[in-house]
Amino acid sequence: MEKSLAVAHAEDLPIEPNEKLAINEVAVQAKQGAEAEHNLSPLKALRLYPKAIFWCLIVSACVIMEGYDTNLLSNFYAYPEFAKKYGHFNEATNNYQLSAPWQAGLGNASNVGSFFGTLLNGYLVLRFGHVRVILGSLAAMSAFVFIVFFAPNTKVLLVGELLCGLPWGIFATTAPAYASEVLPMTLRVYLTSWTNMCFIIGQLISAGIFAGLVNNTTEWSYRIPFAVQWVWPVILFPIIWFAPDTPWHLVRQGRHEEAKESLRKLRSNPSEEELQESLNLIIYTNNLEEQLSVGTSYWDCFKGFELRRTEIACMVFAGQVLSGINFAYNSTYFFQQVGLTTTQTYHLGVGGNGMALFGTIVSWVLIMPYFGRRTTYVIGMGTMSAILIIIGGLNARTNDNHVGMAQAVLTLVWTFVFQLSAGQLGWALPAELGSTRLRQKTVCLARNAYAVTGIVAGVLQPYFMNPTQWNLKGYTGFVWGGTAFITFVWAYFRLPESKDRTYEELDILFARNVPARKFASYKIDAFQNDALP
């Protein structure tokens, strides 16, 4: 009788000498673990995995710092005291302005640092694990904040932002990868996208601080926002010290008993049988990917069917920028350029962050449980493209005093749609779609695709908006509306559905080169002898 794929793979599994189970039982338990994943409802998962959820929330909280700081500089450009300290008086606008080159340089310094920090993280996590890498990054972050806090000029400020970007790149790529490796399938999209919520929380905190300090006429109006960044490491470092590393990482290192203990720490009163099933599923999936010739280096991300997974992860993340985020999200500088007052500008900034938070909650409650990732992303990208084009069209009505406010309101609507779709899934999908052996590196490459795209957008956006440069104002919506439409077309043809798919199923779907539009309906049993192509 022909052996099943499960048994064939199990014979190659690196079982410990003291393992009591027979090889075929290991394979059977791996299949039982996969079935348990499919049968687990979100509410039941909440009861079974409270510890894992807690650790995901804490690890992801590191990203609050990046969300907080990315909101700082873009809003500081319209901040009177900051512009007076680091800018020059502009006779054309009758106020202080940073030049477009310095806006571009400062705005992209942290992105450049994040780019290299992200690449470094792919190596560090493989060797040291997620927890130790995060702890080291928190310590480095505390030191680098001193530079931006005491920066006497734009050059020192740029260096400080560049160095701060290194740990931010690590935080942003570790958080979703960690969540995807400690949670069951039914919860992973919520906690991988929770990283995005942490960005929003950071942005909301910064917007609130800005609104409170905008009328402060001393240097502390911009020093206090920088100093707040010291709060997060003090709180998070001693907590994360006790966090368990992921069982997937430990299995890849061949430390199976430690992986089992990690699973125990992540669950609420698990039985030995449940732990063994989950452990064997992880071992089985890792072994399956080895048989599919999936390595662990960055170069392996561009080999065979992994190239398709890397393309999708990178495009989904870069789609956040291509959807118009530099223009329409937290666009206080745009509000100022279309004639709104400083008070209106910063109140709308707070409203925009509140809208982002509301959109995220709506996405979790009404979108993610009922709609596929592909459907949500495609419709969201198409809607954002339409909104941006409308903003550009409104700019033609130059004699209408209400146009500026109408455009500002539309950016809030854009923000809501962004958080329903690309804002959430840009974080979740790279962590889901990469193979387990290359997950961290796939997330890192996707994040760097976002960073590179963001650098280009960050260089161009000040020129689009600055009154001393191209001064496009609302016409900028046509530019980003066009890039959003291109991303919409790409997603329709290339983005597959990953909802309700376990990792070993996704491995085989990609190995078989199943078309993106058939992922949701394609029937597969990853444990059958004909599962491999």
Describe the structure.
The chain contains 25 helices and two strands. By secondary structure, it is mainly α. It has one domain (about 20-520): Up-down Bundle (Growth Hormone, Chain: A). It has a two-stranded antiparallel ribbon with strand order 1-2.
SSE blueprint:
Layout: H1 5-10, H2 23-39, H3 42-48, H4 50-60, H5 63-76, H6 80-86, E1 88-90, E2 95-97, H7 100-128, H8 130-149, H9 154-182, H10 185-213, H11 220-227, H12 231-240, H13 247-252, H14 256-266, H15 272-291, H16 306-322, H17 325-328, H18 332-337, H19 342-367, H20 373-394, H21 403-420, H22 422-433, H23 439-465, H24 476-494, H25 503-511
Antiparallel strand pairs: 1-2
Helix pairs in contact: 2-15, 4-9, 4-10, 5-10, 7-8, 7-9, 7-23, 8-9, 8-11, 8-12, 9-10, 9-23, 10-19, 10-22, 14-15, 16-22, 16-23, 16-24, 19-21, 20-21, 20-24, 22-23
Number of helices: 25
Any idea what the shape is?
globular
Q: pLDDT under 50 segments (min length 5)?
A: 1-23
Radius of gyration equals: 24 Å
Number of DSSP E strands: 2
Structural class: mainly alpha
Sheet with most strands: 2 strands, antiparallel
> Approximately how much beta-strand content do the residues carry?
under 5%
Observed structural traits:
single chain, about 525 residues, mainly alpha, globular, disordered N terminus
Short recap of the structure:
With 533 residues, this protein is mainly α.
